[in-house]
UniProtKB/TrEMBL annotation:
It comes from Pontibacter indicus. The active site is at residues 178, 205, 303. This is protein-glutamate methylesterase. Keywords: Chemotaxis, Cytoplasm, Hydrolase. One of its GO terms (molecular function) is protein-glutamate methylesterase activity.
Length: 373
């Protein structure tokens, strides 16, 4: 660590440009701190660390692509640097804390207030103090750090466990396909966990009236609830909703609440295969639902490429594409992959197990665990 009289070099990492500027302003007021970079996500964080030495990283836990602390893990592997983690009270659990500590997190700051613009200036003194504490902390000793942070967190008022009345699933999976898509979607749905805490919306290029019998067939293959889409349906956990053939299924806000959704239909059907994968994905991506997972399967053309871009760019968006070897026609998935907006490419047989794991891991990460349990 640097000498006691030299300035600590700090890298700020937060997905919000407003938050980055506020945090930079706060740290710049301290004569003992020097901000050496601002980063919005994994790529910028690693690029900065490769070119400029940082003594500390002040980073938000909900950085884009930081699901399961993947960005922190990459930092730990490539450029080990101690981290002060900014986290929402609702996200903080003993499990998350243990995992964060193993990756070099030595300090935790609860974000003040809710919404997209936390009132960081109300915690300016705490932010500077915890950043500078890296001089004294034994941040590479995870046992000591867990004990210290555990004691600190226990004296904080615990978040109230509020049962949401919103029937819309916190996680929505949007699956899109064309040629060969009925068989591909069928194989995935029959392997999905019957207790899946997500809603699955499926758009396959099919003619009218065909999807009614298709939905009925799927019902006999899974314990999940399978329904053909109709106006007003709510995408609830454990529900699979099949977009009717020949119509563009979308989602709408309920009573102005962007996280509370219902099924609707768009009249824009010009120049598109129906149902449009792009339109369904984009309306879900633009909603306020917590997590959106896009799945692009076999099919001809480029439908879904714009949709996965919208999902990839939103907070807690994740995109899966079917690989070439298992695709009947490698068109839609190829286009999505080449756009650079897919997170993982998998054989058809591995997509359902991955979805089961990913949804369960996401739910577990954001659940608040009593630190005394």
């Amino acid at each position: 660590m640097k000498g006691q009289n030299s300035k600590l070099k700090v890298l700020i990492a937060d997905g919000s440009s407003h938050a980055r500027l506020v945090l930079e302003s706060i740290l710049s007021c301290s004569p003992d701190l020097e901000v050496v970079g601002l980063a919005s996500g994994q790529t910028q964080v690693l690029e900065t660390l490769r070119h400029r030495k940082a003594d500390v990283i002040l980073a938000s836990a909900d950085l884009r692509k930081n699901e399961h602390l993947l960005v922190f893990k990459q930092i730990f592997i490539e450029c080990p640097t101690p981290i002060v983690m900014l986290v929402e009270r609702e996200q903080l659990s003993l499990e998350l804390l243990k995992e964060a500590i193993d990756l070099g997190v030595y300090g935790v700051i609860l974000k003040p207030g809710s919404g997209t613009r936390p009132a960081y200036r109300t915690k300016a003194e705490e932010i500077c103090r915890k950043v500078m504490a890296v001089r004294e902390t034994e941040y590479w000793d995870p046992v000591k750090r867990l004990s210290l942070l555990g004691e600190e967190i226990q004296i904080l008022p615990q978040a109230e466990h509020k049962k949401t009345r919103n029937a819309t699933a916190d996680t929505i999976i949007v699956m899109g396909a064309s040629t060969g898509g009925t068989q591909a979607a069928e194989q995935i749905i029959r392997q999905l966990d019957p207790k899946l805490k997500a809603s699955v919306l499926v758009a396959i290029h099919l003619p009218p009236k065909f999807t009614h019998s298709y939905a009925r067939r799927l019902k006999g293959m899974t314990d999940l609830t399978v329904i053909e889409g109709r106006t007003g349906l709510i995408p609830k956990p454990g529900h699979v909703i099949i977009a009717p053939g020949g119509r563009n299924m979308v989602v709408h806000k309920v009573m102005g609440n962007a996280a509370n959704l219902k099924i609707g239909f768009s009249d824009d059907d010009t120049g598109h295969d129906l149902p449009s994968v792009d339109q369904l994905m984009m309306t879900v991506a633009e909603s306020g639902v917590k997590r959106v997972i896009g799945v692009i399967l076999t099919g001809m053309g480029k439908d879904g490429t714009a949709g996965v871009r919208a999902i990839s760019q939103r907070k807690r968006g994740h995109v899966i594409a079917q690989d070439e070897a298992s695709s009947a026609i490698f068109g839609m998935a190829k286009s999505a992959i080449e756009s650079g907006n897919t997170d993982i490419v998998l054989p058809l047989a591995e997509i359902a197990p991955y979805l089961n794991w990913y949804v369960a891991a996401e739910q577990q990460q954001v659940s608040t665990t009593d630190v005394n349990s």
